[in-house]
UniProtKB/TrEMBL annotation:
Name listed for the protein in its UniProt record: Peptidase
Residue ranges of domain Butirosin biosynthesis protein H N-terminal in the record: 11-142
Domain DUF4872: 153-327
Length: 332
């Protein structure tokens, strides 16, 4: 059996990066992977419906963190998708037979080791398969506390789930990993890219502009959508923030941890201080989720409550803008 050191992490994509890279001797924490990959983001797309409600995201799109980290650290990856489950299974068997841990994209809905209440149609969950025993694949799922197993049929369903984004059996694994890396350049590139995405995208749906855009829409939900749909839309914002992967506040906490780690590594007190400030922003997101949850449960909440939620979002946008504008000017 392949030995694989499983470490539980907060988020699947950055967790898989950290666990796989450490397997090959490249020591990198989950927050460092998230920061170098410029994972922090915000987007609200009212015209992109997810299960009938507008989509909200608090992180960059799936796969971007991995590709950016690999490029910036000089890791060469083999990545494949497949036209049929049979071909995907054969390829997986061949790679793990060589003792190579394999990352893959899957649907949470078909992972039987998740509690039923956590299994929903989310097709961008990352995990690692690192061997096979008694006909079951050995799985390091970064959000689980220990390694687990999955039967071939369930894994096949998870790898070929329908819906957006279709995994299409995607699997990936390193073919070349440097033993030593100077993190200074990758940290600088990751911070520069994160600041650009949070501050400079010239459309209103993304970054701090996107948070303000969402605030305006939340304020008008009851009058434009009616009480029932307003509560549905608001509930999805909370769900995307608190239940999908690491969530909005969680991503802020993780990026804050990256800034503190980067500050310690590079001797920058300013980066450490900004990490502390972003942690406070994460607390504001958590407060918003708590207040929004109370409005959803009330059902009959009037427009004043939604207006208060909108003001909370505007305050969050102001605070995030302060952090990223200062971060964009840090010299190291």
């Amino acid at each position: 059996m392949t030995q694989f050191n499983h470490v539980q992490t907060a988020h699947c994509e950055s967790g898989v990066i950290s666990n796989i890279f450490r397997h090959y001797g490249l020591q990198i924490s989950e927050p460092m992977a998230f920061g170098i990959g410029a994972g922090i983001f915000f987007g609200h797309l009212p015209f992109v419906k997810v299960n009938g409600v507008p989509g909200t995201t608090y992180r960059i799109w799936p796969g971007a963190i991995f590709s950016r980290v690999c490029k910036r650290l000089g890791v060469k990856m083999e990545s494949r998708k497949f036209s049929s489950p049979a071909k995907a299974r054969q390829a997986l068997e061949e790679v793990i037979a060589k003792g190579i841990p394999v990352g893959m994209q899957s649907s949470v809905y078909y992972l039987p080791y998740f509690p039923a209440s956590y299994r929903f149609h989310f097709n961008a969950h990352n995990l690692v398969v690192f061997g096979k025993e008694n006909g079951h694949y050995l799985v390091s799922d970064p959000i689980m506390d220990t390694v687990t197993q999955i039967d071939p049929e369930s894994l096949e369903q998870a790898r070929f789930a329908k819906g957006f984004p279709e995994p299409k059996g995607k699997m990936y694994y390193p073919v070349s990993v440097p033993g030593q890396v100077d993190f200074t350049g990758p940290i600088r590139e990751g911070i520069k890219q994160a600041c650009h995405y949070m501050l400079k995208i010239p459309v209103p749906f993304f970054g701090v502009k996107g948070i303000r855009f969402l605030a305006r829409r939340v304020k008008d939900y009851p009058t434009k959508e009616g009480d029932r749909r307003a509560a549905l839309y608001l509930g999805n914002i909370i769900r995307m923030q608190e239940e999908i992967g690491t969530g909005g506040a969680g991503f802020r906490f993780m990026y804050a941890a990256f800034l503190r780690e980067a500050g310690a590594l590079l001797g920058s007190q300013e980066l450490k201080d900004l990490g502390t400030e972003l942690t406070a922003v994460g607390d504001l997101w958590r407060n918003f989720a708590f207040a929004a949850g109370r409005v959803c449960k009330a059902r009959s909440a009037d427009n004043v409550s939604y207006a208060e939620l909108a003001n909370m979002l505007l305050h969050i946008a102001d605070e995030e803008e302060k952090v990223f504008r200062r971060l964009s000017k840090v010299k190291f």
